[in-house]
Amino acid sequence: SNRNVPQTNAWFVRPAGYLGTGYPIDLLLTDLPRNDTSGYAESWQLTPGVKVKLMGDWEAEALVGYGKTNDFSGAYTGLNTAALDAALASSDPNTAYDPYGLHRTNPAILAGLANQIFLAPTNGKLTTYAARANGSLFELPGGSIKLAVGFERQEFNVALGSARGAPTTPITFRRFGRNVDSAYAELYVPVFGPGNAIPGFERLEFNAAVRHDKYSDVGNTTNPKFGVNWTPVNGIKLRGSYGTSFRAPTIPEIYGNSNNLFIQNYSNPAGGTIQGVALSGANLDLKPETATTWSVGADFEPVSNLRLSVTYWDVDYKNQVLANLSNLAILGQASFYTGTGIILRDAAAQARILELTTTGGIGVVGGSATAAQALTVFVDGRSRNLGVSKTRGFDVAIDYRLDLDDNDTLRFNASGTYLTTYKIAVSPAAPMVDRLNTIFNPLKFKARAALSWEHESVTVRGVLTHVGGYDNNIPTTVQKVSSYNPVDLSVTWRVGDDNAEGFFEKGLTFAIEARNVFDEKPPFVLIAPNGNGSGGYDASAADPIGRLFAASVRKAF
What is the pLDDT of residue 551? Predict the structure, then answer.
């Protein structure tokens, strides 16, 4: 913590020739308890349903669901900045804090310097209703035209709790609700099939779907989807699809998990870090995200037990929701936010901070209002519709099975995504900027390959994950980050028969696995630490935990 040490401090040391009344120090605070966060998540849901046969091959189903979730995150030894500043100013060795790490602070006052709490419970309740029916309408030479229709309703209520400050601070809850009514229909039309196949048209299938959603808080939307599958010869299938989609912002995105100003350290493109203030809270003007997607692809089966597939896809997003509360690297991307008001510097930043801490009545976390008003960096960390993005790329996959004998089978599968385009703009009128393969953005190449050996009831499996290298453009000099390639191994033993009817006859599965078995280290990344991870590594692209062993037992019934 960077705090000012005044000359009144009982252990104040004045550097030679220094005439000031105090100076700032990055305090290590090693004699204070570590502010660890702990928590839990509990949830349950019941969804009874009934399915009935109707005329022909038609069937109908109705379901009702009810469930609750209770999450909690708590920290109890947060830094009491007001008490720390008072201890730093004290001239009495019995009440003064030693800022030089020599452990001369009276142990009796340490607990009062680290007694701030942050409690964040979330309680949710979800009730769902669903009714659907599907079956054949009539026959064509290529097969049956089929229709599926349905209706769904969701009633969601959530209470977001918060207690931040002194140990006696009570938990206060904000309560929100949302209802969603949805209706959908899907039509399947087989033009060519086994009954009327001709050369060049072994199969030709069309499908069309439409879905309408009505949200109680963010409006209505109707989204269609169209698809075609064409099999010119056995072993080759060509396919294509087009559709639109809609994602309503979540309740936490709209209302925020807190309403505060946070003093935190940002990565400075000029080097080192710089303190700034970030705003959290509600954004009632938040709009839904929308997207247009299309894809073309092919599946090949050149020989028995071998399947290859490739898909080229295109996604255009609008009104994407992003929050920058924990984006401590945002100053390196400042040019992309010009004109949005998300980043303010110097006098504009100080004016906004003064407005929020005075007439706005917004509290400050990590320091005092006076300290916040002196800073020259402001970031609007609330959820915002930050513009548009265009993403294009290829998905490839391979699956192969080799039967060695009646009891032994080798399986190999691999999949990967190669992006050709990722461009963003912070508003529809802004120019598109290429952000592909840069830190905190989609990476150009990711892949995963698995090889397994199945011997009767035992399966041995190895998995290699590859996260390609990318550019860290937060520092002034762009850093080339290397790839990350952890390997996982597992052994699974199945006891009994999963297809049996009785409880005791059904299968029992034991598994042992070693994740990151070779203890692959995350590549070094030159970024500052923050509360969500990172700091010397990128938590969005690599796992710092290292080698991990796990065992599990699973019972089917």
Answer: 95
Beta bridge partners of 319: none
Distance of alpha carbon 479 from alpha carbon 476, whole angstroms: 9
Q: Lowest-pLDDT range, 66-70, 268-272, 536-540?
A: 268-272
By the 10 Å C-beta count (0-12 exposed, 13-18 middle, 19+ buried), 148 is classed as middle
Choose among 60, 253, 296: nearest CA to 158. 253
Biggest alpha carbon–alpha carbon distance for the chain: 98
> Tens of pLDDT along 326-336?
888 889 878 88
How many CB atoms lie under 10 A from the CB of residue 352?
A: 18
Provide the CA 535 distance to its chain's centre, in angstroms: 18
26 with 6: CB under 8 angstroms?
Answer: no
One-character DSSP codes across 7-75:
TTSTT--PPTT--SSEEEEE---TTSPP--EEEEEEEEEE--EEEEE-STT-EEEEEEEEEEEEEEEEE
Percentage helix, strand, coil for the chain under 3-state DSSP, each rounded to 5: 10, 55, 35
Using only the alpha carbons of the chain, give its radius of gyration.
Answer: 29
Each residue of 122-159: pLDDT tens digit? 999 999 999 999 999 999 999 999 999 999 999 999 99
Q: Return the exposure string of 400-422: e unless at least 16 CB atoms fall within 10 Å of the residue's CB, then b.
A: eeeeeeeeebebebbebbebeeb
Chain CA centroid to CA 286, Å: 19
What's the Cα-to-Cα distance from 464 to each of 75, 416, 421, rounded to whole Å? Answer: 37, 12, 25
Q: How far apart are the first and last CA of the chain?
A: 54
Residue 3 main-chain phi, psi, to 5 deg: -130, 155
Alpha-carbon gap, residue 226 to 210, rounded angstroms: 9
Cα–Cα distance for residue pair 234/202, rounded to 1 Å: 7
CA–CA gap between residue 14 and residue 17 (Å, rounded): 8
SS3 293: strand
Tell me how far CA of residue 391 lies from CA of 36, 290, 316, 333, 481, in angstroms: 38, 14, 7, 19, 22
Nearest to 142 by CA among 179, 207, 202, 195: 195
- Which residue from 237, 221, 141 is spatially nearest to 184, judged by alpha carbons? 221
Interatomic CA distance for residues 76 and 114, integer angstroms: 8
Question: Per-residue DSSP letters for 444-478?
Answer: SEEEEEEEEEEETTEEEEEEEEEE--EEE-SSSSP
- Within 248-288, strands assigned E span 260-267, 273-279
Count of Cβ atoms closer than 10 Å to residue 224 Cβ: 11
Backbone torsions φ then ψ of 347, nearest 5 degrees: -65, -35
Look at the alpha carbons of 379, 384, 390, 396 in this order and tell me if their dihedral is positive or negative.
Answer: positive
Q: What is the pTM of this model?
A: 0.75
The pLDDT value given to residue 500? 64
Tokens at 32, concatenated: 């204070």
